[in-house]
Design a protein that fits this description.
Elements (H helix, E strand, L loop, with lengths): L30 H4 L2 H13 L1 H17 L5 H12 L3 E6 L4 H12 L4 E6 L29 H11 L3 E5 L5 H8 L4 E5 L10 H5 L21
Parallel strand pairs: 1-2, 1-3, 3-4
The structure holds iron/sulfur cluster.
Length: 225
């Protein structure tokens, strides 16, 4: 759908005047300029209305302030766990990233944090059981386990983890995991099989290598087998 002024949003803003409260730099479609004060105040009160949400917002802000540009995301993640007072974390990992999951667990345990990881193929349920066509498998006719993010969430729920990290789950499987996890969730690694799990690389290069992304077409499917 082409952009028109009527559907402009922050996704059309190149200024970000809201960061400094600079109302002279709010564009006409700006949600800061156009939201009622009542709405903004009502939402702001929700941070202090919930002890847990308030603590999370304060801890997140303190990490940004104290470690800006110094702590890697791995370090920020574990700082967050420590400062929140969480004792046991879960990792919902892609089986393709088990080595990275092992390393993250080792790093966390070195800081006194208990870790329980669950790989995405847990349960080893064949893909066809939930209606994925056999011909969609990498090797049709063979047993091929489906990704099972709901079982990952259920096992971590039963382990009583305080906080869960996603380690490279597929798009959509990550959504199901977040939906079914009782503990709050953050993403340590976001899956991008083409760009070494760095989807921002495509956004940085739409002026050069990934110019095609700005066109209307998406890649054609290719059969896996
Ligand atoms: S709230 Fe306004 S100033 Fe801030 S990013 Fe959105 S459009 Fe830009």
């Amino acid at each position: 759908m082409p952009d028109t002024q009527a559907n402009f949003s922050c996704a059309n803003c190149a200024i970000g005047g809201c960061a400094m409260g600079d109302s002279a730099r709010y564009p006409g479609f700006c949600p800061t300029a156009n939201s009622s004060q009542e709405l903004v105040d009502g939402v702001t009160k929700r941070y202090t209305g919930s002890r847990k949400d308030h603590k999370m917002a304060l801890v997140a802000a303190s990490i940004e302030s104290d470690y800006y540009g110094r702590a890697t995301r791995v370090e920020e993640s574990l700082l967050f766990v420590k400062k929140m007072g969480y004792k046991k974390i879960g990792v919902a990992s892609c089986v393709g990233l088990l080595a990275e999951c092992n390393t993250f667990a080792k790093i966390a345990r070195a800081k006194g944090i208990e870790v329980y990881g669950v790989g995405c193929k847990v349960g080893s349920v064949d893909k066809t059981v939930i209606g994925i066509p056999d011909e969609s498998k990498f090797a049709p006719g063979s047993h091929e386990a489906m990704c099972n993010p709901i079982l990952q969430a259920e096992l971590l729920n039963r382990e009583g983890t305080d906080f869960n990290f996603i380690m490279g789950l597929c798009l959509g499987h990550d959504t199901l995991f977040i939906k079914h996890s009782k503990a709050p969730v953050s993403v340590l690694v976001v899956k991008d099989r083409v760009l070494c799990h760095n989807p921002a690389a495509a956004l940085y290069t739409t002026g050069t290598y990934y110019r095609r992304l700005l066109g209307p077409d998406l890649p054609e499917p290719v059969h896996c087998g």
